[in-house]
Every structure is written in structure tokens, then in C-alpha cells.
Design brief:
By secondary structure, the chain is α/β, with parallel strands linked by helices. Helices cover 45% and strands 12% of the residues.
Length: 443
């Protein structure tokens, strides 16, 4: 089972008992799950028509691109270093996008200003980052939907303090841009108030799109534009995936519905309580992190949901594959493969004359990556582990936009099938309240 009219090909054949034996999913359980997915698809179509889920209208938007590009130009003016301050959904999607340029990998070649994502709050990292930059030519993009994210707030104020100490206080407005939602329902937005006080360039965070679903809004596309990527192509790829949903196609012809039905049925019938995502491409490592937040925070409620696990091949074959093959049969596997055969450095035959190296003679690095990816998939299947694959011909803006929309829809559909709200995150609030309490006690 695969869909070939998309920028990627999803294949789920190796998840069923006909292919992998008794540990595979039965067609009866899968058929039941597909029927449940039909209800979720109907909900999505109604939400699109009634405009009650802003995410579904994002791929067709154009009105926000002009203001986005204006702010990008300001942030790039006379800039050597650009820091994106934000956490979770305010950063992970943009990082996944940035990796299209090989940012964050050994293959990255610096073009334009250095771009850093300070998504995790760490005292030593923040100090080192500020100390290693020329603050006169350093800019900061601050992203927080609510404007009250405490980690982002302290980063912003610390960066402003560093500028002030360096004697740049009177130029403060040139160093910062803020992306946050407007104050609403009488509730203040402290970050927006700060931006207005100092005259920072400001963009509106869509109030109807939660942080972890915001990658196709200006949250993800502003950094993409700064990095010189084709921002319209991301949305074009998303439209490719959304089109069958809006056209009323049945669940077994809608790629995200197939994925959601598969995951929920495997958990119900086979106890697959973990979902392992393994990508054979360094440029998809941050995409895996983005998905882990999306899936975990959206579905982990009321004792429900499955646990996302990240792995990057080939390196994690050596650190995790033994567990996957010899450990508990409580996982579903998703493997991402790119067309890598024939790519990368080649081994000269005259240098591989030792019998131990003979199999490598004349081969490219990409040949081995391709062989190992296929071998991992086949080995998982032969050992009764349900595994689906995503084959990507070319990892570009359109393909990544399609993958973003696929997994946002897959997550929403799974949430509806579980009978939970995939858009809230009530359990994380308790920790935030306690952290503020402990901070106050330090004074």
C-alpha cells in the first residue's frame, strides 16, 4: 500500500500479518480503524468549510508573506549573527526547516549570518553564545505565541541586558524582532508590551494555530526566508497532502489517515505503545524532534497515546537496533529513506585491495547508506516488527512541507480516534507554576 501522487511515498505493507506473520496487524483491525478515521476526516472537512481550524487554511495563505519578508530584511541588515529565541513549537519546526541547508550538520557551509536556535535554556550555552558574538551586529528573533513563555522571556531580557551593558541601549530596537499573538480577551501579552515599549519589529502569531502546529506559518517560514529558502514551496507541499482530505477521498486513499489508522490499530491489537521514527539522513534529525513533540504533547492524555522515539541511521543501528530486534515487541517503526545511492565520496578500487575492504571498492558513501536502510527495514520485517517506510526522492522545501502537513494531520486524526483533544496540553501547566514559585523563592 503506497501513495505515489505526493512528494514522498508511504508504504505500509510490512505492517500486516500477511507480510510479517502473527505479530503483524490483521486486516480486520485495520479496517475498523479506517472506519474510525473516516469520522475524523469528516470533522476536518467541516472544520475547513466552517474555518474553525486555522491550520487547514494556512497552506493557501499569501497575505502574511509580505510582512514576513519585511521583517526578514530588517533582521539581515548589517548582521553577522542571528539568534532565534523560542522553545518547543516556537523553534523545532524552524530548526527542521533550517536543516534543508544542512544547518546543524557537519555538511553545513556558512552563507550569510550565522544562525543559532537557542531553544533549550542553559546558562553556560547562553553565556558562551553572547560572548562569542559581536553584539553590534547581532540580531534576535523572539518567538512566543502567548508572550509569556518564561524561558524565552528570560533569554530575551538577558540578551537586552547584554546589549545595554555593551553600550548599545539606544540602538536596542534594531537588534530585536518579536513574533507573538496580540493581547486578547483583556489578557495582557508581556512580550508584545515589551516590543512596543522599545519599538521592536513585530509580527502576529496566528491566534488559531498552536505552537507545535505552527511550522507552516510565519513561525517556521520567517527563519526559512532568512535562510534563503523557497517559502511558497513549503505550503505547496502541504496543499498536496491536504487536497485528498478536502476532496472527500476515503481514508484508505488519504496518506495521513492510513498512518493514523495503522498506529492506533497496532496499539489496540498488538500493544504497540511506542512509535520509533528512524531517518537515514542527517538533514531530517530535527524533523524527528519536531514530530516527537507534536505526537507526544498532542496525544499523551487521559492515559492514552503512544511514546515517540527518535533514531538516526546508520549510527543508531549500532546503539538501538539490537533492542528493536531482540527486545519487547511493543513498537511500530517508521523509516525515512532518501535516494542516496551514488552520492557522496567514492572509494577508489586501488585503495581497497585488502579482502576486508573489497566490498567497498568503487562504491559511494551513499551506496552503503542506501543498502543499510533497506537492510534495516527488511530485517525488522523478517523479525515480525511492523515497519512502514517513507521514500523521499528529493529532500527539498515542497517535500518537507508535505511531510509537515502529513504528520500534523496524522496526529489530529489519531487524536480524534482516541477521543481526546489533540490541541491542548493541560499536564505541563503544573510544572510551569512550580518553576515560577521556586524562582520567586530565590530572591
Amino acid at each position: 500500500m503506497s501513495q505515489t501522487n505526493l512528494p514522498y511515498e508511504q508504504n505500509v505493507d510490512a505492517c500486516f500479518e500477511e507480510k510479517i506473520g502473527k505479530d503483524g496487524l490483521s486486516k480486520a483491525a485495520y479496517g475498523k480503524a479506517l472506519k474510525e478515521a473516516e469520522t475524523a476526516l469528516a470533522w476536518l472537512r467541516e472544520a475547513y468549510e466552517k474555518q474553525t481550524l486555522a491550520l487547514l487554511r494556512v497552506p493557501e495563505r499569501k497575505d502574511d508573506l509580505g510582512p514576513l519578508r519585511d521583517v526578514a530584511a530588517k533582521l539581515l541588515d548589517n548582521t553577522t549573527d542571528l539568534f532565534v529565541l523560542g522553545t518547543g513549537g516556537s523553534s523545532l519546526g524552524a530548526q527542521a526547516i533550517a536543516q534543508l541547508t544542512s544547518w546543524g550538520t557537519q555538511a553545513h557551509v556558512q552563507k550569510g549570518p550565522r544562525v543559532f536556535f537557542l531553544d533549550n535554556l542553559d546558562a553556560q550555552t547562553m553565556q558562551a553564545a553572547l560572548s562569542a558574538s559581536d553584539l553590534k551586529t547581532t540580531r534576535f528573533l523572539v518567538v512566543s505565541k502567548s508572550g509569556g513563555t518564561v524561558e524565552t522571556s528570560i533569554q530575551t531580557l538577558a540578551a537586552m541586558s547584554a546589549i545595554e551593558k555593551a553600550g548599545g541601549g539606544k540602538y536596542m530596537k534594531h537588534h530585536f524582532a518579536v513574533l507573538t499573538e496580540p493581547a486578547k480577551d483583556g489578557k495582557p501579552n508581556a512580550l508584545r508590551a515589551l516590543a512596543e515599549k522599545y519599538g521592536f519589529a513585530t509580527l502576529e502569531h496566528d491566534t488559531g494555530v498552536g505552537g507545535r502546529y505552527s511550522v507552516l506559518t510565519n513561525v517556521g517560514l520567517l527563519p526559512a526566508d532568512i535562510l534563503g529558502l523557497d517559502i511558497e514551496a513549503f505550503r505547496a507541499g502541504a496543499k498536496d497532502v491536504l487536497a485528498p482530505v478536502l476532496a472527500g477521498k476515503p481514508a484508505d486513499e488519504v496518506a495521513p489517515a492510513i498512518g493514523a489508522a495503522l498506529s492506533m490499530a497496532l496499539q489496540a491489537e498488538k500493544g504497540a505503545n511506542m512509535t520509533v521514527f528512524m531517518a537515514y539522513a542527517d538533514r531530517l534529525e530535527r524533523f524527528l524532534a519536531w514530530h516527537a513533540q507534536l505526537w507526544g504533547e498532542s496525544l499523551g492524555k487521559e492515559g492514552k497515546g503512544t511514546t515517540p522515539v527518535r533514531a538516526v541511521g546508520p549510527v543508531d543501528q549500532h546503539s538501538q537496533l539490537q533492542l528493536y530486534l531482540g527486545g519487547p515487541k511493543d513498537k511500530m517503526y517508521t523509516v525515512f529513506m532518501t535516494e542516496t545511492a551514488g552520492e557522496g565520496p567514492v572509494v577508489l578500487p586501488e585503495l581497497a585491495t585488502d579482502p576486508a575492504f573489497a566490498s567497498l571498492a568503487g562504491h559511494h558513501i551513499g551506496d552503503l547508506v542506501d543498502a543499510e536502510a533497506r537492510a534495516t527495514v527488511d530485517t525488522l520485517a523478517k523479525n515480525g516488527r511492523p515497519v512502514r517506510t517513507f521514500k523521499v526522492k528529493k529532500l527539498n522545501e515542497r517535500t518537507l512541507g508535505a511531510l509537515f502537513m502529513h504528520f500534523m494531520l496524522e496526529t489530529i486524526i489519531a487524536g480524534k480516534m482516541l477521543g481526546i483533544d489533540p490541541f491542548d496540553q493541560p499536564a505541563v501547566e503544573e510544572g510551569k507554576i512550580l518553576a515560577k514559585k521556586y524562582l520567586a523563592e530565590m530572591k
